[in-house]
Amino acid sequence: MNKGRAVFLVVLAAAAFAAGWALFQLVHQRAALRVILGLRWWWLGPWMCVSLACAARLSITALRSDRERPSRLCALAVVGVFSWLGFLLLVHPYQKLWLELALGVAGGAWMLVVLILDALAHPLPKFVSRSGMALFGLCLAVPCLELGLRAWALASPRPWLARVSDAPSSVIERFRLAPGTVRFGFPCNSRGFYDEECSPPPRPNRLIAAIGDSFLLGSVPHAFNLTSVCEASLGLEVANISVAGAGPSEYLRLLVDEASPLEPSAVVVGVFVGNDLNCADLEAGRSRSWLGSWFARESSLTWIVPRRLLRRAAERRRQIDPERRLGEVPGEALRQMDPLALHKQMPWLDDPLLEPESMSREAFLELEARRALEICRGLPPGLALLERELGRMREMLGSTPLVVVLWPDEFQVEDDLWKAVLERAAIPLDRDLPQRLVRERLERTGIPALDLLPILRAIAPLADGNRHLYHLRDTHFNARGNLAAGRALARYLEEQGYAR
Amino acid sequence: MTRNVRLCTRSPYDVRMGSVERKLAGLAILAMVGCAKPESAWRAELSASDPFVRTLAAVALAELNPGSAQDALPVLLEAVDRTELRLGPSAMGQLTRMAPAHAPWLVSQLASQPFMTIERRAALRRAVVFAGEHGVAPLLAALRDGLLAPSEDIAAMLVEIGPAARAPLRAFGSGQLQPNLSAFAELVLARLGSGQAQQSAAGDSR
Asked: Under a CB-based contact definition with an 8 Å cutoff, are residues A225 and A241 in contact?
């Protein structure tokens, strides 16, 4: 038997096995699959039977005939890539069972294509074989693109190459600022955090470690950041250990890798209810296998990157100031900032009404409505994950106190925005539900929490009726919000005795 | 050897089945039909750590034996709003299917869980309404025991259940109750009456 025929027979056996296994699953689990798949169950069964019949016919002809057909293996690549893309497009979320059924369908499709190709006159007309080769090349390029993007993400981590299935440490490395990066004229420290260098232990004064995401990282000059405000109010060091894009799992990693070595006297974890309660709980039955990373939408870069680029392009078209980077807060890119001229360069530090917008109204409302739908309808999907990770942090810290600060979302503080969000959501929502749920769980586990929602709501509105504690259409605190949050945090730490 | 020589003399595309092949195919089909997962295996999977496997098992149990699959109910309710599984519609359907046999449990969930997603509440509500007369007694008992408040939503559920709710409601209203519950029963009965009147009016006009 020649080599080509042997390869064909091996692939044929694999395809037949895939179809047979899929048929077995369909029958074995029929009580559940008949309900879940509905009509699809009724055509999948016959399809697998046809696939097995194709496999029988092809194996007999392959054993009897010694003709080699390279088009058969080309068809395998084409059907394989189309099946992969089809799976990404049609099947979500990834489950092993769905993949097994899809492999059966793909195996059957390939065998059918081979039978059709065999039945066609040989040699194939030139234009057919040429277009077939072009399609084959194109199909080979798709997995190469995925591999290339993965290699790129591995070699040079970038936010737009991040995947949900990335491990916490990988997310941190991807989003952590490079040491020395200048934001609002202030250079990040040697660990890539938007703060001064921390004094190493033993130190004369106490140190409080503050862990968080972009909310704590802040989008204001360093002196206006809430950790700086808190530091000034308490008269002790508050280390800002924050990475944009972090979630509960990353907070735990930051505690282990960054905060613990500083031997803090207390640890503050900032939880932004807008995005920390809807993180994917990867440990709750979601696949992280290598195969899953190719077939799960949220892990496939071929699926993620084009959509991400399209969204960026759409937002760029809506953006008013084309000079600014997407999502950049006004003034963030300034390399040098004269403390005396600061208020002239950024007049909105004093008067939030002068603030320029960070994103278009459409994109902002879309984002806020999505968040409200995720967290104000009922139990948010990431609540269990948050509870679990905070519990682990508490266990890990032992006698060192752990304090949680709840940053509210802007729609919870600004009434006009809430009205717009409700209108967009078009279903009843419970505005304070996320805080109630988190507080209830924290009380149960005995972790003290500072809920900023009532504190921020108690702040008097400005002339236009809004409180202006967040940057204009940006979702993060502005200088006014940082001041209020920083003071409230300092007061709370003092009252609880963590600052003494 | 003789067979091989004979095979090679046939056309490669002549693949008619012999009697042995036909028997084998028949046996394979029979084996496939008989290989359905047994109820005990599904039941064991109800406690699997993977929520997808759990939900699949609950859906199957509800399909196989809706009357005695009480263990599947919490799993189905959990799956209703788990967006990452995307099995919500199936779970909701099965919950409804099981409702007549398990109405007291459904009502107890409605009464005991203050924090519930809109999807979960809707699924429970739909199931209780589907349970019809079986759902009325547990609803009224929960009202009487103060587990449920006499709200507009409960009134709407009883009205949706329809005439099957009338007799139990009359009995409920005539019992020794707090005044607000008596008024509630009267209100629902009035709506049920007017609903019937509207239906008959609509029938006359047709």
From this structure: no
